[in-house]
Design goal:
The protein has 247 residues and is an alpha/beta fold. It has two domains: 167 residues, P-loop containing nucleotide triphosphate hydrolases (Rossmann fold, 3-Layer(aba) Sandwich), CATH 3.40.50.300; 67 residues, no CATH class. 35% of the residues lie in helices and 21% in strands. The chain contains seven helices and ten strands. The strands form two sheets. The chain has a six-stranded mixed β-sheet, sandwiched between helices. Strand 7, helix 5 and strand 8 form a beta-alpha-beta unit. The longest helix is centred in the C-terminal third of the chain and has 18 residues. The two termini are 32 Å apart.
Length: 247
Amino acid sequence: MVEVDELCFSYQMGSPIFVDFNWSIAQGERWSVIGPSGCGKTTLLYLLAALLLPASGKINIDGSPLTKPRLATGLILQEYGLLPWASAFDNVSLGLKVRQLDKKRIVRITQKWLSQLGIKAVSNHYPSELSGGQRQRVAIARTLALKPDLLLMDEPFASLDALTREDLQNLIIKLWETMSLTMVLVTHNIEEAVFLGKRILVLQHPPNTKTIVVENTGSGYSEYRKTSDFTQRCKEVRELVERSISP
């Protein structure tokens, strides 16, 4: 589905972050991206969303060059991105209104996702009246209401307490299974990367020139956190991240 080919990118007057970087994501795969601070995790996600464009090389999605943001790509951010003056219902329905769907369809789709994410009871509440977990559920509902085929997430649970974070991680797995999404999660949390990613991309101190992938096929069920395989994958990923902290 996604092909990153000979990607080169650096910020203006900055050192290169990616140089001749190659990576591929198959349809329906679930990836985590992890690495030390400043390694380019969020930059890579923004390149996949076409919020940034490569200096050279290319990114193809479904065989088409990525030159601008695409309607079928969903992006979920750590800070939720909710309109503070709009209710949960209005925040979820925002993208549907932008796409000018008819009102009955907007209501039907919005209510479906409010219900599916367990926030229908707070649909008339404003973001300031919601917990962090509820706000993130609103952000997820708003994104999934637009039927993305590629879901990009940038540290979506970093500001949440441990139990809420695990609850939402479990929710993401269920949504991935039911919607056949292709998913890329950026995180600094090793345990989160291992729980959510069937494949884990480890970025290193820039410039990133090669693809380091940890296979993690056992992930994706709530009890995985308690297994020896989970502990071993966490150790493996930690060693790779620690090895890459210094150039």
